[in-house]
Amino acid sequence: MRSVFTLLLVLVGTQVGLSSVRVDGYCYLEGETDHSGTKVKFLEASPTADTDSTYTEASGYFGLDLMPGVYDIEYSQHGFLPLQMEDLALINDTALPSQTLPHGVPLFGALSGTLGPDFFIILGNVSVNSGDMLRLMPGTVFRFGGPYSFEIEGTLLAEGTESDSIVFTIAVLLNPDHWRNLHFSGSASSGSRLAYCDIQNGSHPSLGGGGIECSGSSPTITNCTIRNNTAHYGGGVGLGWSSSPTITHCTIIGNSANLGGGLYCGDNSSPTITHCTVVGNSADLGGGLYCGDNSSPALERCTITDNSAYCGDGVYCRFSLPSFSSTVITYSGGSGIYFFNSASSQFEYCDVFGSSGANFAFYDDDPSQGPSGIGELVSSNTNGDSCDGYYNIFLDPMFTNAAAGDYHLLAGSPCIDAGDPNLPLDPDNTVADIGAFYFSQLDVDEPVAVLPRTYTLHPNWPNPFNPITNIRYDVPQTGHVGLVIHNLLGQEVIRLVDKGHLPGSYTVAWNAAHWPSGLYLCRMEAEGFTQVRKLVLVK
């Protein structure tokens, strides 16, 4: 192709002589408002061409005069994925198509040591090999540019904080579909820990674990959000091959699969799952959770709600030995819990309520497929509510605001003090409540308003977020308070608060639907006080 262009240009030059042409265009930086500083380099690819370069302005615009010829073009800026275009014949004035450089440092292959905090673009499968350790710092973001997986056979320590999560997601500009998953494989990866991670938009259509997959591995997973992932089994989390991870204080939401929309437990797996919320997941079998193939998951103090499936909308049990204690299973799209050859399953001190079908369903309508007498009201619990022989109740748990995702209990909930009395006491030193969130009974009869003693800008929640986050701040005295969002260049993006305040605690929401992904700074100013927090918008 280049020889054709070269011959054409030589013929044109012989007849009319060569004069310069004007070439311009725009190159944007993902997540930024100032697009200046990108180097646009034109590399000669024919005898008449002449290598030259320029830089973008704040608007992203660039332009320069070139000798007619065939060129390769390179767009580059530190912290962004470079872009190349080849064999462009520029023989007339030309407006190039606009380009956008994805935010992130290119990364692929075997990883070890310490990474972050930074944005990384994953351009191939990544791994932590057996015997190696990789530590990801709070604020690190892995954005997968294709259907790549993260294979962990060594130790992964991805421990964010409540205000500075670690994110695994897709790079929308390169990969509008999905990445694979975090795959913990083998006992050598059992020392891995995930904390305050946001694992989203993964997909494993032919296998398991759209977000997280464990094969013979037992990592510890705490305070993580696992959302919008898909797989053949285990849309959010897929567990097999005798895996026994500890999963606690996690939110598993909006995932889908053929088996186990939220979680799949199979192949002799025996996870411990506590204080987790499993909500809004869907599957053919087991919308919230699928227990099969001699698995024996142990769930305590969880909330499983608003899940849907063709069968077993909340929980599906097949040839399994699960143990559920002090867990809420509510508002299932069909049956709450389905039993198939799982008579030894244990469901005790649970609240099963609001299923659009039966609370309990059985294969071939045969009750012997599940625990004997489950669901039959034969007694009363210590609160005086009717229950079955396993102390399960069937009453509205009285969530604070389920529509807004708040599954804390209201005063008067039948779940208060109705959990397993053999479990450790709740933090208020009362008997365990049913569900992922306990109701504090301290000073419940005489609430006292406590005014803040200092100005404080609290970490926003959620963080990272898309597109809404809540920002809480404390004001100890009457006076003017300003709350402003800035980009990394210090430019004001939006002024959320700018008025006088009485003493108290306040919360304001920022809807960033119209702003690009990236890192932002929230600045609070009041009476000589200044504090700044980092906010990460990930779309």
CATH topology of the domain at 2-101: the name is Immunoglobulin-like
How far apart the termini lie comes to 40 Å
**CATH domain class name of the domain at 2-101:** Mainly Beta
Radius of gyration: 28 Å
| Helix fraction by DSSP (H/I, runs of at least 4) | under 10%
Counted by DSSP, the helix tally is 1
Spatial shape:
globular
> How does the major sheet shape up?
20 strands, parallel
Please identify the structural class as seen in this structure.
Answer: mainly beta
Task: Please describe what this structure looks like.
48% of the residues are buried. This protein has a 20-stranded parallel beta sheet that branches. A ten-stranded parallel beta sheet has the order 10-12-15-18-22-26-30-34-38-41, with no helix packed on it. Mean pLDDT is 89; it is low at 1-7 and 9-16. With 539 residues, it is mostly beta strands. Among the domains are: 2-101, Immunoglobulin-like (Sandwich); 456-537, Immunoglobulin-like (Sandwich), CATH 2.60.40.1930. The radius of gyration is 28 Å and the shape is globular. β46 (399-401) and β47 (406-409) form a beta hairpin. It is 3% helix and 46% strand.
Keywords summarizing the entry:
539 residues, mainly beta, Immunoglobulin-like, 20-stranded parallel beta sheet, 10-stranded parallel beta sheet, 1 helix, 3% helix, 46% strand, disordered N terminus
